[in-house]
Write a structure and sequence with these properties.
Helices cover about 15% and strands about 40% of the residues. The protein is of the alpha/beta class. The chain folds into 2 domains: about 1-70, Signal recognition particle alu RNA binding heterodimer, srp9/1, CATH 3.30.720.100; about 75-138, Signal recognition particle alu RNA binding heterodimer, srp9/1. The strands form 2 sheets. Strands 1-4-3-2 form a 4-stranded mixed sheet, covered by helices on one side. A 4-stranded mixed sheet has the order 5-8-7-6, with helices on one face.
Amino acid sequence: MQLHTYLNYPGTCRTAFEFYQQKLGGKITSIMTHGQVPNSPGLTPGWEDKVLHARIDLGETYLMGADIPNAEPIRSAYITLSFDSSEETERIHDLLAEGGEIFMPLVETFFAFRFSMLRDQFGTSWMLIHERPMPTAH
């Protein structure tokens, strides 16, 4: 079994995925627009070029998404990115924070060398962590 995340955007899915591809080093593997669906009844006017389904590979997993009228930003869940270095955590934090909203600044904690929570300019909530080794349970 694998667990993957599907995000809905209010018309910015392509822009968000292109940003993630460029800034996070992902690879967009598919994009289908609403207008590519044959005989699509009920197509929202002006949405022909909006994304019906997209997939981007990020590290060892992938993220999927679509443009949905009236989609709202994530409120109670975070996409979590784990890093092997504080430098990479800081680099990605700076990229995702630009034009977004920081909920918890990038700091050192008892459980992480670096940890932050933020919402990017596309409404996606991210948790970034460079974990400290934790004691094992006995």
